[in-house]
Structures are given as structure tokens and as C-alpha cells.
Here is the input.
Amino acid sequence: MSQKSIMNILITGGTGFIGRYLVKELASQGALCRVLIRLTSDTSALNGIAGVELWKGDLTQLQTLVGIAEGIDYVFHLAAEGHVSAMSEEAFNKFTKVNVDGTINLLTECRSHNVKKFVHFSSTAAMGLIKKQVVNETDAPRPVTPYQKSKLKSEKVALKLGKDFAIPTVVVRPCMIYGIGGKGEFYKISQLMRKGMFPRVGRGRNLTPLIHVTDVVQGAIKAMRNGISGEVYLLASDCSIDLNEMRHFIMQAWGTKAIYPYVPVRFALCVAWCLEFLAKLTGKAPIATRQNVISTACDRQFSIEKAKRKLGYTPQISFREGILETVNWFKKGP
Here is the structure.
């Protein structure tokens, strides 16, 4: 790659939602980006970005990674497998193969090179549902689903091997991510609300943590520059959004009206149980799970004080601005 005066950065998951923003931002700062892609990856989003090198390989096949970290200064490991609602043992094994074994393979290859910092992307999903007013990095995780368990295990593996291999490693845990180009959980919620199929569960405020994709990127880059090896950092907005307020912004952007039926928590749990049972019979992920219901009914808030103090992280995108632009993009038919 380049002379050492320029940052050489390896990115896995660079063709994904967050990865595309990250590659573009790093390239705009003058970095040269080596992006791990699979044979089936759609790389069109990276076209025209200067200083991007594509490396064909597979995290689950160590031999395809040989030499990938040569000349690399920093690594951003975003690639992951998972469906938040998947419940089967088969799903857990699949997620573990990529999220855990893939992380081991990547760090093993980085071991023989002088990597300055390894930034491991996890998720607040790794913490499970912690019933506390404001959750921070010191709270013990309680993962339940296969995806949650695989993400927590990948964190532990990354931090342990980072220490064993003398590779400074930090973990970032963003909450639900939204923004133009994303079709994850926020997209699903938006579509259900538009159709009047997303009920108000329980009588609480249903505080929901969100973070705009550009804030995730700036937080991750600051973790690369300022993160302390062995530490975990939560990334979110300054506060969670009231679900009714989120719905207001979503419906405003769609320009439509839809019902917002109230559903008691116990009834929602019964419906979710039925959906989980049907999912086991069909082998498909359920539309909603009991875990989804409990998460929606609870007020969830994450403290970002550590990221602010230690990384210099400051969220920039307001909910109103971010939600309106995102849903307007949905309307164009992503």
C-alpha cells in the first residue's frame, strides 16, 4: 500500500450499510482503505472512491486472509452475520462461525503485522436487555438470543486475543442504527408503523435508543484515534427517543396517517410466543419475538458519557433531521 506517512486501513464489512459510510469518510481524510469483500459482494457503493483496494476473501477461511494485514496501520472489523430475531441452534452456529471464528481468523492474521489499533464493531444487542434506568459499560451483559450471544462472544474473543497478540483492541457498541442506505430494524419499524401494524405496547414511554450512521462513523474513528486498548465504548444519541415521538416523525415523513393501537404487554407476549412457535415449525425467523416485545415495552437508555470523555465523541444528528431524511429516502423505494 502507501508510504507510512499515510494511514493504511483495513476494513471488513466495507460494502455494508455502516462500512460504506466509514470507507468514504476515511478516504476523504486521505487514508488508503483495503476492503475485504466476498465473491458475491456488491461493491458498487465503493466505485469512484479514491484510495480503495478490494481484497477478495472470507473471514471463515483463514487461507484467504493471508497477507491482508500487511502494511496496515488500523483495522475496523465490521463484518458480521446475524438476524436479531433468529432463535434456532442452527442460527447460533451460523452466527458463531462468522462473528466469533471469523474474528479469531482476522486477529490471527493481524498478529504477524504491526497493527496499531483494532476496532471491533459489536452492538448494544450483545448486552441483552438490562432493566436499569440508564445502562453503561460496567453493567453485566445478559444476552438471550443467538445473535446477542454471538456478538458478546465475539467481543470477548477480540479483547482476549488483542491482549494475547499485543494488538491494541477496542470495542464499540452502537445501538439501533439508521440513516440513508440502511434497511435494518429501523426500516422494518418504519414500514410497520406506516401500515398501522406497529402497536403501542404497554403504557410506558417506550424510550428507544437510536444513532445516526454518520455519528457511528465519527465515534468509530475517534475510537481508532483515542480508544484505550481493552476498553468498550457505547455509541448512541444523547438520549433515547419516545416511541410516540419517533412515530410522529416517521408518519410526518411518509405523509400518511395510520392507526397506533394499544396492546397490553401480556397479550403481545402471547402473540409473540405463537409467532416463535410457528417459526420453529417453518424454520424462518419470526416477525416478532417475546424479546422484541419486552424491549419495546421497556424504556431503554444508554449512557455515552464514557465515549464523550475518553474519545471526544459528540452526537451531531438530531432525531428530527435524521428520521425525516431517512424515511424520505425509504419513500424513493430503496
In short: The CA atoms of residues 120 and 153 lie 12 Å apart. The first helix runs from residue 17 to 28. The mean pLDDT is 92. Residues 8-179+208-237+302-315 form a domain with the Rossmann fold fold (CATH 3.40.50.720).
